[in-house]
Amino acid sequence: MPYWAIFCLYCQGYMSDTLLECLPPVKKAHPAYPSLFARKPGAALACPYCNGLIGFDASEQPCVPEPGWPVFRYSQVELESKNLDDGANPAASLRDWASAFRFTKPGTHQPLASYTYAEQAPADEAVP
């Protein structure tokens, strides 16, 4: 997985590991996935803190994504699997796991507190 770290444009939450491996398999097969993977224009990641949509410009810098870009959200199932891989308590909530292991520098929101998972979003979700 790529190692790139960013601050959310909206809530200033820090993503030191974007966990792209925790996107649903069908989204990793999407034609826009390589753009997200490489920090290029054409795809948007939903912030795990605030659900804000983050894209990248031609200089690989975070930006407000353009309308029509596909939205990539974390899969609850994939995150639960990652939680177990990390050795976290299986009874711990994803929010507690994310706060302790993955998204440890929140801005104005706690990680995964009111996150819209891929399973809850339209399959063809795009930036409005």
Helices and strands in order, then pairings?
Layout: E1 6-7, E2 14-15, H1 25-28, H2 33-37, E3 44-46, E4 53-56, E5 62-63, E6 71-72, H3 76-85, H4 94-102
Parallel strand pairs: 3-6
Antiparallel strand pairs: 1-2, 3-4, 4-5
Number of domains: 1
Please estimate the helix content: 10-25%
Q: What integer is the average pLDDT?
A: 93
Number of strands: 6
Strand proportion = 5-15%
SS element count, helices? 4
Strand order of the largest sheet: 5-4-3-6
Order of helices and strands: EEHHEEEEHH
Task: Please give the oligomerization state of what you see.
Answer: single chain
In angstroms, what is the radius of gyration?
A: 14 Å
Beginning-to-end CA distance, first to last residue? 28 Å
Helix vs. strand class: alpha+beta
Shape: globular
Biggest sheet statistics = 4 strands, mixed
Name some characteristics of this structure.
128 residues; alpha+beta; two-stranded antiparallel ribbon; 4 helices; 22% helix; globular
